[in-house]
Amino acid sequence: MTFLFQTDEKSQIKKNESFTKKFSKWKLVRRFVQTGIIFLLVSPVFGFTFFSGTLISSEIFGFFLTDPLAAADYFLAAKTFSVLVFGSALTVLVFYFFVGGRVFCSWVCPVFLLTELSEKLNKKFAVFKIKPSPNQKYFVLGAVLVLSFATSKPIFEIVSPIGFVSQNLAIGIDTKSKVFGDKISLESGEIYGNLKKNLIAKDVERVRFLFNGSLWFVLTIFLIDVFVVKNWWCKFTCPVGAFYSILGKKSPAKIKINHEACNNCGKCFKVCFVNEVLIAPVQGKSDFVLDGSCTNCLNCVDVCPESALGAGIKKDFWK
Amino acid sequence: MERRDFLKKGLATGLVTCTSSFSLFALLGQDNKTYFRPPGALPENEFLSACIRCAKCVQACPYDTLKLGSVTDGKNAGTPFINFREKPCYLCEDLPCVKVCPTDALDIKSLVNIDLVHIGTAVITDREACLSLNGIRCEICYRVCPMIDRAITLEKHEQEITQKHTVFEPVIHKDYCTGCGICENACPLDESAITVLPSQRGDKAKHYQYLREQVKHKKGHKK
Ligand code: SF4
Ligand code: SF4
Ligand code: SF4
Ligand code: SF4
Ligand code: SF4
Questions:
Q1: Neighboring chain B residues of A68 at a CB cutoff of 8 Å
Q2: Which of A67, A200, A267, B29 is the residue whose CA sits 20 to 30 A from A76?
Q3: Residues B104 and B176 in one domain
Q4: What does the pLDDT look like over A256-274, one tens digit per residue?
Protein backbone atom coordinates (compact mmCIF):
# COMPACT_ATOMS: atom_id res chain seq x y z
CA MET A 1 0.00 0.00 0.00
CA THR A 2 2.87 2.33 -0.68
CA PHE A 3 0.72 4.43 -2.93
CA LEU A 4 -0.84 5.90 0.14
CA PHE A 5 2.26 7.39 1.59
CA GLN A 6 2.74 10.77 -0.01
CA THR A 7 6.21 12.11 0.32
CA ASP A 8 5.40 15.79 0.10
CA GLU A 9 6.84 18.02 2.78
CA LYS A 10 3.63 18.76 4.59
CA SER A 11 2.90 15.22 5.57
CA GLN A 12 6.57 14.55 6.31
CA ILE A 13 6.59 17.28 8.92
CA LYS A 14 3.30 16.16 10.34
CA LYS A 15 4.63 12.62 10.67
CA ASN A 16 7.57 13.79 12.73
CA GLU A 17 5.40 16.00 14.89
CA SER A 18 3.18 13.20 16.01
CA PHE A 19 5.96 10.94 17.14
CA THR A 20 4.66 10.97 20.67
CA LYS A 21 2.10 8.23 21.02
CA LYS A 22 -1.48 9.37 21.17
CA PHE A 23 -3.50 8.34 24.18
CA SER A 24 -5.82 5.54 23.06
CA LYS A 25 -9.06 6.65 24.63
CA TRP A 26 -11.34 4.31 22.73
CA LYS A 27 -9.12 1.34 23.23
CA LEU A 28 -9.38 1.87 26.96
CA VAL A 29 -13.17 2.03 26.78
CA ARG A 30 -13.20 -1.04 24.60
CA ARG A 31 -10.97 -3.02 26.96
CA PHE A 32 -13.33 -2.01 29.74
CA VAL A 33 -16.33 -3.36 27.83
CA GLN A 34 -14.50 -6.55 26.85
CA THR A 35 -13.55 -7.22 30.46
CA GLY A 36 -17.10 -6.39 31.48
CA ILE A 37 -18.44 -9.06 29.13
CA ILE A 38 -16.10 -11.63 30.64
CA PHE A 39 -17.28 -10.66 34.12
CA LEU A 40 -20.86 -10.91 32.92
CA LEU A 41 -20.22 -14.44 31.67
CA VAL A 42 -18.66 -15.59 34.94
CA SER A 43 -21.04 -13.58 37.15
CA PRO A 44 -23.37 -16.55 37.91
CA VAL A 45 -20.40 -18.28 39.51
CA PHE A 46 -20.31 -15.56 42.14
CA GLY A 47 -24.00 -15.78 42.82
CA PHE A 48 -25.29 -12.93 40.67
CA THR A 49 -28.56 -13.76 39.01
CA PHE A 50 -29.17 -10.98 36.50
CA PHE A 51 -27.27 -12.77 33.77
CA SER A 52 -27.04 -16.39 32.76
CA GLY A 53 -25.99 -18.28 29.70
CA THR A 54 -23.32 -17.93 27.08
CA LEU A 55 -22.79 -15.93 23.92
CA ILE A 56 -24.84 -18.51 22.03
CA SER A 57 -27.91 -17.90 24.10
CA SER A 58 -28.35 -15.98 27.31
CA GLU A 59 -30.80 -14.32 29.56
CA ILE A 60 -30.27 -10.82 30.96
CA PHE A 61 -32.79 -9.32 33.38
CA GLY A 62 -35.31 -11.83 32.07
CA PHE A 63 -34.74 -10.96 28.41
CA PHE A 64 -33.69 -13.81 26.19
CA LEU A 65 -30.89 -13.18 23.73
CA THR A 66 -29.78 -15.63 21.06
CA ASP A 67 -26.98 -15.41 18.57
CA PRO A 68 -28.73 -14.95 15.20
CA LEU A 69 -26.44 -17.47 13.48
CA ALA A 70 -27.16 -20.05 16.18
CA ALA A 71 -30.86 -19.38 15.67
CA ALA A 72 -30.53 -19.83 11.91
CA ASP A 73 -28.58 -23.06 12.44
CA TYR A 74 -31.26 -24.25 14.84
CA PHE A 75 -34.09 -23.56 12.41
CA LEU A 76 -32.22 -25.31 9.61
CA ALA A 77 -31.10 -28.27 11.70
CA ALA A 78 -34.20 -28.94 13.78
CA LYS A 79 -36.45 -27.84 10.91
CA THR A 80 -38.85 -26.24 13.31
CA PHE A 81 -39.77 -22.73 14.26
CA SER A 82 -39.68 -21.27 17.73
CA VAL A 83 -41.03 -17.84 18.57
CA LEU A 84 -38.71 -17.57 21.55
CA VAL A 85 -35.58 -18.27 19.54
CA PHE A 86 -36.70 -16.03 16.71
CA GLY A 87 -37.63 -13.14 18.99
CA SER A 88 -34.45 -13.35 21.05
CA ALA A 89 -32.32 -13.51 17.90
CA LEU A 90 -34.19 -10.56 16.40
CA THR A 91 -33.44 -8.48 19.50
CA VAL A 92 -29.74 -9.12 19.02
CA LEU A 93 -30.00 -8.51 15.28
CA VAL A 94 -31.69 -5.11 15.68
CA PHE A 95 -29.18 -4.05 18.32
CA TYR A 96 -26.17 -4.87 16.18
CA PHE A 97 -27.79 -3.34 13.14
CA PHE A 98 -27.85 0.03 14.84
CA VAL A 99 -24.43 -0.07 16.51
CA GLY A 100 -22.67 -1.67 13.53
CA GLY A 101 -22.65 -5.40 12.84
CA ARG A 102 -19.16 -6.40 13.83
CA VAL A 103 -19.30 -4.37 17.01
CA PHE A 104 -19.98 -7.83 18.38
CA CYS A 105 -16.47 -8.85 17.34
CA SER A 106 -14.37 -6.06 18.72
CA TRP A 107 -16.43 -5.15 21.76
CA VAL A 108 -18.09 -8.36 22.92
CA CYS A 109 -16.55 -11.58 21.58
CA PRO A 110 -13.93 -13.02 23.96
CA VAL A 111 -12.17 -14.68 21.02
CA PHE A 112 -11.28 -11.23 19.75
CA LEU A 113 -9.05 -10.66 22.77
CA LEU A 114 -7.14 -13.78 21.75
CA THR A 115 -7.02 -12.51 18.19
CA GLU A 116 -5.55 -9.23 19.31
CA LEU A 117 -2.95 -11.07 21.36
CA SER A 118 -2.14 -13.40 18.47
CA GLU A 119 -1.73 -10.39 16.21
CA LYS A 120 1.03 -9.07 18.46
CA LEU A 121 2.71 -12.48 18.67
CA ASN A 122 2.35 -13.01 14.95
CA LYS A 123 4.53 -9.96 14.34
CA LYS A 124 7.39 -11.73 16.10
CA PHE A 125 6.75 -15.40 15.52
CA ALA A 126 5.05 -15.70 12.14
CA VAL A 127 6.59 -18.63 10.32
CA PHE A 128 4.40 -18.96 7.29
CA LYS A 129 2.81 -15.94 5.72
CA ILE A 130 -0.23 -17.22 3.91
CA LYS A 131 -2.86 -14.70 2.92
CA PRO A 132 -6.27 -16.07 2.00
CA SER A 133 -9.01 -13.91 0.55
CA PRO A 134 -11.04 -11.94 3.09
CA ASN A 135 -14.14 -13.20 1.29
CA GLN A 136 -13.39 -16.73 2.48
CA LYS A 137 -15.53 -16.17 5.57
CA TYR A 138 -18.66 -15.76 3.48
CA PHE A 139 -18.08 -19.20 1.97
CA VAL A 140 -17.63 -20.64 5.44
CA LEU A 141 -20.90 -19.01 6.46
CA GLY A 142 -22.67 -20.51 3.46
CA ALA A 143 -21.14 -23.92 4.10
CA VAL A 144 -22.23 -23.82 7.75
CA LEU A 145 -25.83 -23.07 6.81
CA VAL A 146 -25.95 -25.73 4.11
CA LEU A 147 -24.28 -28.33 6.34
CA SER A 148 -26.60 -27.55 9.23
CA PHE A 149 -29.53 -28.25 6.99
CA ALA A 150 -28.00 -31.36 5.42
CA THR A 151 -26.75 -33.02 8.61
CA SER A 152 -29.59 -31.81 10.84
CA LYS A 153 -27.04 -30.63 13.38
CA PRO A 154 -26.24 -27.04 14.30
CA ILE A 155 -22.80 -27.45 12.76
CA PHE A 156 -21.18 -24.22 13.83
CA GLU A 157 -22.39 -24.45 17.41
CA ILE A 158 -20.68 -27.84 17.74
CA VAL A 159 -17.27 -26.37 16.91
CA SER A 160 -17.70 -22.71 17.77
CA PRO A 161 -14.71 -21.27 19.65
CA ILE A 162 -17.00 -18.45 20.76
CA GLY A 163 -19.24 -21.10 22.28
CA PHE A 164 -16.33 -23.03 23.78
CA VAL A 165 -14.77 -19.98 25.39
CA SER A 166 -18.04 -18.70 26.78
CA GLN A 167 -19.13 -22.17 27.94
CA ASN A 168 -15.89 -22.49 29.83
CA LEU A 169 -16.26 -19.05 31.33
CA ALA A 170 -19.84 -19.76 32.33
CA ILE A 171 -19.41 -23.17 33.92
CA GLY A 172 -15.68 -23.81 34.01
CA ILE A 173 -15.13 -22.03 37.28
CA ASP A 174 -16.87 -23.42 40.29
CA THR A 175 -16.43 -21.64 43.58
CA LYS A 176 -19.10 -23.26 45.66
CA SER A 177 -19.19 -26.85 44.70
CA LYS A 178 -21.83 -28.65 46.64
CA VAL A 179 -20.58 -32.00 47.79
CA PHE A 180 -23.10 -34.60 48.79
CA GLY A 181 -22.28 -37.60 50.92
CA ASP A 182 -20.48 -39.59 48.26
CA LYS A 183 -20.15 -42.80 50.17
CA ILE A 184 -23.39 -44.37 51.15
CA SER A 185 -22.99 -46.11 54.45
CA LEU A 186 -25.29 -48.93 55.34
CA GLU A 187 -25.87 -47.69 58.88
CA SER A 188 -27.65 -44.52 57.84
CA GLY A 189 -30.20 -46.35 55.74
CA GLU A 190 -33.09 -44.44 57.20
CA ILE A 191 -32.27 -41.22 55.38
CA TYR A 192 -32.85 -42.75 51.99
CA GLY A 193 -36.57 -43.05 52.43
CA ASN A 194 -36.99 -39.36 51.80
CA LEU A 195 -33.82 -38.54 50.05
CA LYS A 196 -34.82 -35.19 48.65
CA LYS A 197 -35.43 -33.75 52.10
CA ASN A 198 -32.48 -35.30 53.76
CA LEU A 199 -29.73 -34.63 51.29
CA ILE A 200 -26.82 -33.39 53.22
CA ALA A 201 -25.24 -30.62 51.24
CA LYS A 202 -21.93 -29.25 52.28
CA ASP A 203 -20.91 -25.99 50.69
CA VAL A 204 -17.26 -26.33 50.04
CA GLU A 205 -15.63 -22.97 49.63
CA ARG A 206 -13.00 -23.44 47.03
CA VAL A 207 -12.34 -22.54 43.47
CA ARG A 208 -12.29 -25.38 41.00
CA PHE A 209 -11.34 -24.93 37.39
CA LEU A 210 -13.12 -27.45 35.27
CA PHE A 211 -12.01 -26.20 31.89
CA ASN A 212 -12.84 -28.86 29.38
CA GLY A 213 -11.09 -30.25 26.33
CA SER A 214 -12.85 -27.83 24.02
CA LEU A 215 -10.18 -25.28 24.80
CA TRP A 216 -7.83 -27.41 22.69
CA PHE A 217 -9.78 -26.28 19.72
CA VAL A 218 -9.42 -22.66 20.75
CA LEU A 219 -5.69 -23.22 21.23
CA THR A 220 -5.47 -24.66 17.72
CA ILE A 221 -7.00 -21.53 16.29
CA PHE A 222 -4.70 -19.38 18.35
CA LEU A 223 -1.61 -21.24 17.14
CA ILE A 224 -2.68 -20.99 13.51
CA ASP A 225 -3.24 -17.28 14.08
CA VAL A 226 0.25 -16.88 15.54
CA PHE A 227 2.29 -19.08 13.23
CA VAL A 228 0.53 -19.56 9.95
CA VAL A 229 -2.06 -16.99 8.93
CA LYS A 230 -2.35 -13.69 10.70
CA ASN A 231 -5.91 -13.35 12.02
CA TRP A 232 -6.87 -16.58 10.33
CA TRP A 233 -9.96 -17.10 12.41
CA CYS A 234 -11.47 -13.66 12.90
CA LYS A 235 -10.56 -12.17 9.56
CA PHE A 236 -10.89 -15.08 7.17
CA THR A 237 -12.93 -17.86 8.72
CA CYS A 238 -15.44 -17.07 11.46
CA PRO A 239 -19.02 -17.38 10.13
CA VAL A 240 -20.33 -15.20 12.96
CA GLY A 241 -17.97 -12.47 11.83
CA ALA A 242 -19.16 -13.03 8.26
CA PHE A 243 -22.77 -12.83 9.35
CA TYR A 244 -22.22 -9.57 11.19
CA SER A 245 -20.22 -8.23 8.23
CA ILE A 246 -23.27 -8.63 6.04
CA LEU A 247 -25.46 -7.03 8.67
CA GLY A 248 -23.00 -4.20 9.28
CA LYS A 249 -22.83 -3.22 5.65
CA LYS A 250 -26.21 -1.53 5.88
CA SER A 251 -25.74 -0.26 9.43
CA PRO A 252 -25.92 3.51 10.02
CA ALA A 253 -23.04 3.46 12.53
CA LYS A 254 -19.92 3.92 10.43
CA ILE A 255 -16.43 5.36 10.66
CA LYS A 256 -16.46 8.80 9.02
CA ILE A 257 -13.47 10.38 7.34
CA ASN A 258 -12.74 14.06 6.88
CA HIS A 259 -10.81 14.12 3.60
CA GLU A 260 -9.39 17.60 4.18
CA ALA A 261 -7.79 16.67 7.47
CA CYS A 262 -6.38 13.31 6.35
CA ASN A 263 -2.70 13.62 5.38
CA ASN A 264 -2.29 10.05 4.15
CA CYS A 265 0.12 9.13 6.90
CA GLY A 266 -1.08 5.52 6.83
CA LYS A 267 -1.16 5.08 10.59
CA CYS A 268 -4.71 3.78 10.58
CA PHE A 269 -3.60 0.95 8.30
CA LYS A 270 -1.17 -0.28 10.89
CA VAL A 271 -3.74 -0.62 13.66
CA CYS A 272 -6.64 -1.99 11.64
CA PHE A 273 -6.86 -5.76 11.39
CA VAL A 274 -9.05 -5.58 8.28
CA ASN A 275 -7.20 -2.63 6.81
CA GLU A 276 -8.36 -3.13 3.23
CA VAL A 277 -11.63 -1.49 4.31
CA LEU A 278 -9.74 1.78 4.78
CA ILE A 279 -8.38 1.98 1.23
CA ALA A 280 -11.44 3.51 -0.37
CA PRO A 281 -12.11 6.18 2.27
CA VAL A 282 -8.46 7.22 2.61
CA GLN A 283 -8.13 7.48 -1.15
CA GLY A 284 -11.10 9.83 -1.07
CA LYS A 285 -13.52 7.49 -2.78
CA SER A 286 -16.09 7.46 0.03
CA ASP A 287 -16.89 9.49 3.11
CA PHE A 288 -17.43 6.45 5.29
CA VAL A 289 -15.79 3.09 5.86
CA LEU A 290 -18.42 1.23 3.93
CA ASP A 291 -17.13 -2.33 4.05
CA GLY A 292 -19.03 -4.48 6.52
CA SER A 293 -15.83 -6.13 7.74
CA CYS A 294 -15.02 -3.01 9.76
CA THR A 295 -15.60 -3.83 13.41
CA ASN A 296 -16.05 -0.25 14.64
CA CYS A 297 -13.24 -0.94 17.06
CA LEU A 298 -12.19 2.71 16.74
CA ASN A 299 -8.47 1.85 16.76
CA CYS A 300 -8.09 4.02 13.68
CA VAL A 301 -9.92 6.91 15.35
CA ASP A 302 -7.56 6.65 18.30
CA VAL A 303 -4.44 6.64 16.20
CA CYS A 304 -5.23 9.29 13.60
CA PRO A 305 -2.97 12.27 14.33
CA GLU A 306 -5.19 14.67 12.38
CA SER A 307 -8.43 13.47 13.95
CA ALA A 308 -9.65 12.92 10.42
CA LEU A 309 -11.42 9.73 11.41
CA GLY A 310 -14.32 9.59 13.80
CA ALA A 311 -17.42 7.66 14.70
CA GLY A 312 -20.20 8.85 12.44
CA ILE A 313 -23.77 8.20 11.45
CA LYS A 314 -24.54 7.47 7.84
CA LYS A 315 -27.95 9.06 7.43
CA ASP A 316 -28.86 7.41 4.14
CA PHE A 317 -27.81 3.98 5.39
CA TRP A 318 -30.43 2.07 3.39
CA LYS A 319 -28.81 3.01 0.11
CA MET B 1 20.12 -18.97 9.60
CA GLU B 2 18.62 -21.52 7.25
CA ARG B 3 18.83 -24.16 9.88
CA ARG B 4 17.07 -21.90 12.35
CA ASP B 5 14.40 -21.15 9.86
CA PHE B 6 13.91 -24.84 9.25
CA LEU B 7 13.62 -25.53 12.96
CA LYS B 8 11.15 -22.70 13.40
CA LYS B 9 9.00 -23.95 10.56
CA GLY B 10 9.15 -27.49 11.83
CA LEU B 11 8.20 -26.51 15.35
CA ALA B 12 5.31 -24.35 14.22
CA THR B 13 4.01 -26.98 11.83
CA GLY B 14 4.33 -29.62 14.51
CA LEU B 15 2.45 -27.60 17.09
CA VAL B 16 -0.34 -26.65 14.73
CA THR B 17 -0.71 -30.16 13.32
CA CYS B 18 -0.72 -31.75 16.76
CA THR B 19 -3.42 -29.54 18.19
CA SER B 20 -5.52 -29.47 15.05
CA SER B 21 -5.35 -33.21 14.49
CA PHE B 22 -6.25 -33.76 18.12
CA SER B 23 -9.28 -31.54 17.72
CA LEU B 24 -10.21 -33.10 14.39
CA PHE B 25 -9.91 -36.69 15.60
CA ALA B 26 -11.83 -35.79 18.68
CA LEU B 27 -14.58 -34.20 16.63
CA LEU B 28 -14.90 -36.86 13.99
CA GLY B 29 -14.16 -39.77 16.27
CA GLN B 30 -16.87 -42.39 16.38
CA ASP B 31 -18.22 -42.61 19.89
CA ASN B 32 -20.37 -45.46 21.06
CA LYS B 33 -20.95 -43.92 24.42
CA THR B 34 -24.56 -43.43 25.42
CA TYR B 35 -25.31 -39.96 26.65
CA PHE B 36 -28.07 -39.56 29.18
CA ARG B 37 -29.76 -36.21 28.76
CA PRO B 38 -31.47 -33.92 31.25
CA PRO B 39 -35.14 -34.59 32.00
CA GLY B 40 -37.55 -33.78 29.24
CA ALA B 41 -34.97 -34.11 26.47
CA LEU B 42 -36.25 -34.95 23.01
CA PRO B 43 -35.33 -38.35 21.53
CA GLU B 44 -31.56 -38.45 21.01
CA ASN B 45 -31.40 -37.57 17.30
CA GLU B 46 -33.90 -34.76 17.58
CA PHE B 47 -32.12 -33.56 20.69
CA LEU B 48 -28.80 -33.31 18.84
CA SER B 49 -30.51 -31.23 16.15
CA ALA B 50 -32.29 -28.94 18.54
CA CYS B 51 -29.67 -28.31 21.21
CA ILE B 52 -27.73 -25.18 20.32
CA ARG B 53 -25.01 -25.92 22.88
CA CYS B 54 -25.65 -22.87 25.01
CA ALA B 55 -24.79 -24.64 28.30
CA LYS B 56 -27.59 -22.83 30.12
CA CYS B 57 -29.04 -26.08 31.46
CA VAL B 58 -25.68 -27.09 32.91
CA GLN B 59 -25.41 -23.70 34.55
CA ALA B 60 -28.93 -23.94 35.95
CA CYS B 61 -28.61 -27.36 37.60
CA PRO B 62 -28.26 -26.72 41.35
CA TYR B 63 -26.68 -30.12 41.99
CA ASP B 64 -23.95 -30.01 39.33
CA THR B 65 -25.59 -33.10 37.88
CA LEU B 66 -25.23 -32.00 34.31
CA LYS B 67 -21.87 -32.19 32.64
CA LEU B 68 -20.98 -30.51 29.38
CA GLY B 69 -19.57 -32.42 26.44
CA SER B 70 -16.29 -31.16 24.99
CA VAL B 71 -14.65 -31.66 21.61
CA THR B 72 -13.61 -35.11 22.78
CA ASP B 73 -17.30 -36.01 22.71
CA GLY B 74 -17.55 -35.46 18.96
CA LYS B 75 -20.95 -34.32 17.90
CA ASN B 76 -21.95 -34.18 21.54
CA ALA B 77 -19.59 -31.25 22.15
CA GLY B 78 -21.39 -28.61 24.15
CA THR B 79 -24.37 -30.81 24.98
CA PRO B 80 -25.44 -31.64 28.53
CA PHE B 81 -25.22 -35.18 29.86
CA ILE B 82 -25.47 -37.02 33.14
CA ASN B 83 -23.06 -39.43 34.78
CA PHE B 84 -25.31 -41.09 37.35
CA ARG B 85 -22.51 -42.65 39.35
CA GLU B 86 -21.03 -39.23 39.87
CA LYS B 87 -24.25 -37.34 40.48
CA PRO B 88 -27.78 -38.46 39.69
CA CYS B 89 -30.62 -36.18 38.69
CA TYR B 90 -32.71 -35.25 41.72
CA LEU B 91 -35.66 -34.28 39.54
CA CYS B 92 -36.09 -30.80 40.92
CA GLU B 93 -39.77 -30.04 41.17
CA ASP B 94 -39.47 -26.91 39.04
CA LEU B 95 -36.95 -28.47 36.60
CA PRO B 96 -34.65 -25.44 36.30
CA CYS B 97 -32.68 -27.09 33.50
CA VAL B 98 -35.77 -27.43 31.33
CA LYS B 99 -36.98 -23.93 32.06
CA VAL B 100 -33.86 -22.19 30.81
CA CYS B 101 -33.55 -24.12 27.55
CA PRO B 102 -34.10 -21.59 24.74
CA THR B 103 -34.89 -24.22 22.15
CA ASP B 104 -37.22 -27.15 22.62
CA ALA B 105 -34.31 -29.55 23.09
CA LEU B 106 -35.54 -29.92 26.66
CA ASP B 107 -39.24 -30.05 26.18
CA ILE B 108 -41.33 -27.78 28.36
CA LYS B 109 -44.19 -30.26 28.10
CA SER B 110 -42.45 -32.55 30.52
CA LEU B 111 -43.05 -29.90 33.19
CA VAL B 112 -46.70 -30.91 33.31
CA ASN B 113 -46.00 -34.21 35.00
CA ILE B 114 -42.58 -34.86 36.43
CA ASP B 115 -43.49 -38.53 36.89
CA LEU B 116 -43.47 -38.93 33.13
CA VAL B 117 -39.79 -38.11 32.81
CA HIS B 118 -37.83 -40.92 31.18
CA ILE B 119 -34.14 -40.22 31.17
CA GLY B 120 -33.61 -43.96 30.86
CA THR B 121 -34.65 -47.10 32.68
CA ALA B 122 -32.85 -48.73 35.57
CA VAL B 123 -31.91 -52.35 35.13
CA ILE B 124 -30.21 -54.80 37.48
CA THR B 125 -27.20 -55.33 35.28
CA ASP B 126 -25.14 -57.47 37.60
CA ARG B 127 -27.35 -60.11 39.13
CA GLU B 128 -24.36 -61.99 40.50
CA ALA B 129 -23.12 -59.00 42.42
CA CYS B 130 -26.39 -57.51 43.63
CA LEU B 131 -26.43 -57.92 47.39
CA SER B 132 -30.19 -58.30 47.58
CA LEU B 133 -30.13 -61.10 45.04
CA ASN B 134 -27.50 -62.80 47.17
CA GLY B 135 -29.93 -62.89 50.03
CA ILE B 136 -28.51 -59.92 51.91
CA ARG B 137 -31.00 -57.27 53.05
CA CYS B 138 -29.47 -54.41 51.10
CA GLU B 139 -32.35 -52.97 49.09
CA ILE B 140 -30.71 -49.55 49.05
CA CYS B 141 -31.84 -48.92 45.50
CA TYR B 142 -35.40 -49.60 46.56
CA ARG B 143 -35.24 -47.24 49.53
CA VAL B 144 -33.61 -44.33 47.71
CA CYS B 145 -35.96 -44.46 44.75
CA PRO B 146 -38.15 -41.35 44.68
CA MET B 147 -40.81 -43.53 43.07
CA ILE B 148 -40.54 -46.20 45.74
CA ASP B 149 -43.07 -49.04 45.37
CA ARG B 150 -43.92 -47.87 41.89
CA ALA B 151 -40.62 -47.80 39.99
CA ILE B 152 -38.97 -50.44 42.18
CA THR B 153 -40.78 -53.09 44.13
CA LEU B 154 -39.36 -55.93 46.15
CA GLU B 155 -40.42 -59.39 45.07
CA LYS B 156 -39.91 -62.23 47.47
CA HIS B 157 -38.42 -65.60 46.57
CA GLU B 158 -37.15 -68.47 48.58
CA GLN B 159 -33.41 -68.30 49.21
CA GLU B 160 -32.11 -71.43 47.54
CA ILE B 161 -28.99 -72.09 49.63
CA THR B 162 -30.55 -72.24 53.08
CA GLN B 163 -34.07 -72.82 51.83
CA LYS B 164 -35.19 -71.01 54.97
CA HIS B 165 -34.58 -67.38 54.15
CA THR B 166 -36.08 -65.00 51.66
CA VAL B 167 -34.52 -63.11 48.78
CA PHE B 168 -35.95 -59.61 48.33
CA GLU B 169 -35.41 -58.99 44.66
CA PRO B 170 -35.60 -55.38 43.48
CA VAL B 171 -37.71 -55.33 40.33
CA ILE B 172 -37.92 -52.23 38.19
CA HIS B 173 -41.13 -51.22 36.46
CA LYS B 174 -40.22 -49.19 33.48
CA ASP B 175 -43.47 -47.30 33.13
CA TYR B 176 -42.72 -45.61 36.42
CA CYS B 177 -38.92 -45.52 36.42
CA THR B 178 -37.82 -41.98 35.65
CA GLY B 179 -34.21 -42.95 34.99
CA CYS B 180 -33.07 -40.44 37.57
CA GLY B 181 -30.15 -42.70 38.49
CA ILE B 182 -30.46 -42.16 42.23
CA CYS B 183 -30.43 -45.96 42.61
CA GLU B 184 -27.33 -46.35 40.43
CA ASN B 185 -25.65 -43.63 42.42
CA ALA B 186 -26.55 -45.22 45.75
CA CYS B 187 -25.61 -48.84 45.06
CA PRO B 188 -22.91 -49.62 47.64
CA LEU B 189 -20.94 -51.94 45.36
CA ASP B 190 -17.78 -50.66 43.71
CA GLU B 191 -19.44 -51.14 40.34
CA SER B 192 -23.11 -50.47 40.60
CA ALA B 193 -25.24 -53.58 40.12
CA ILE B 194 -28.15 -51.41 39.03
CA THR B 195 -27.57 -49.26 35.97
CA VAL B 196 -29.69 -46.82 34.05
CA LEU B 197 -29.90 -47.88 30.40
CA PRO B 198 -31.61 -46.16 27.49
CA SER B 199 -35.34 -46.77 27.66
CA GLN B 200 -36.56 -49.40 25.25
CA ARG B 201 -40.18 -48.92 24.62
CA GLY B 202 -40.64 -50.95 21.47
CA ASP B 203 -43.72 -52.90 20.50
CA LYS B 204 -42.32 -56.26 21.55
CA ALA B 205 -41.51 -54.99 24.99
CA LYS B 206 -45.08 -53.73 25.25
CA HIS B 207 -46.31 -57.19 24.30
CA TYR B 208 -44.49 -58.89 27.15
CA GLN B 209 -45.56 -56.20 29.52
CA TYR B 210 -49.12 -56.92 28.52
CA LEU B 211 -48.60 -60.62 29.22
CA ARG B 212 -47.16 -59.80 32.60
CA GLU B 213 -50.13 -57.65 33.48
CA GLN B 214 -52.49 -60.38 32.38
CA VAL B 215 -50.75 -62.89 34.63
CA LYS B 216 -50.93 -60.46 37.54
CA HIS B 217 -54.57 -59.90 36.83
CA LYS B 218 -55.32 -63.62 36.87
CA LYS B 219 -53.35 -64.13 40.05
CA GLY B 220 -55.35 -61.37 41.64
CA HIS B 221 -58.57 -63.09 40.73
CA LYS B 222 -57.47 -66.37 42.20
CA LYS B 223 -56.80 -64.79 45.58
S1 SF4 C 1 -14.75 -12.91 13.85
FE2 SF4 C 1 -15.87 -14.42 15.07
S3 SF4 C 1 -14.48 -15.09 16.67
FE4 SF4 C 1 -13.65 -13.20 15.77
S5 SF4 C 1 -14.39 -11.62 17.10
FE6 SF4 C 1 -15.86 -11.79 15.41
S7 SF4 C 1 -17.39 -13.23 16.15
FE8 SF4 C 1 -15.64 -13.41 17.51
S1 SF4 D 1 -11.56 0.67 10.01
FE2 SF4 D 1 -11.12 1.47 12.04
S3 SF4 D 1 -12.90 0.90 13.27
FE4 SF4 D 1 -12.96 -0.34 11.39
S5 SF4 D 1 -11.94 -2.22 11.97
FE6 SF4 D 1 -10.40 -0.90 11.08
S7 SF4 D 1 -9.47 0.16 12.82
FE8 SF4 D 1 -11.41 -0.74 13.53
S1 SF4 E 1 -33.96 -31.89 37.27
FE2 SF4 E 1 -32.67 -30.77 38.70
S3 SF4 E 1 -31.05 -32.23 39.28
FE4 SF4 E 1 -32.03 -33.04 37.44
S5 SF4 E 1 -30.74 -32.25 35.77
FE6 SF4 E 1 -32.43 -30.82 36.03
S7 SF4 E 1 -31.65 -29.25 37.39
FE8 SF4 E 1 -30.26 -31.02 37.57
S1 SF4 F 1 -30.27 -25.36 27.55
FE2 SF4 F 1 -31.11 -26.53 25.83
S3 SF4 F 1 -30.05 -25.74 24.01
FE4 SF4 F 1 -28.89 -25.07 25.79
S5 SF4 F 1 -27.32 -26.64 26.06
FE6 SF4 F 1 -29.05 -27.23 27.37
S7 SF4 F 1 -30.29 -28.59 26.10
FE8 SF4 F 1 -28.89 -27.50 24.73
S1 SF4 G 1 -33.67 -44.64 38.12
FE2 SF4 G 1 -33.71 -45.89 39.95
S3 SF4 G 1 -34.16 -44.43 41.60
FE4 SF4 G 1 -34.70 -43.41 39.67
S5 SF4 G 1 -36.86 -43.85 39.39
FE6 SF4 G 1 -35.74 -45.46 38.28
S7 SF4 G 1 -35.57 -47.11 39.77
FE8 SF4 G 1 -36.13 -45.28 40.92
A1: none
A2: B29
A3: no
A4: 888 888 888 888 888 898 8
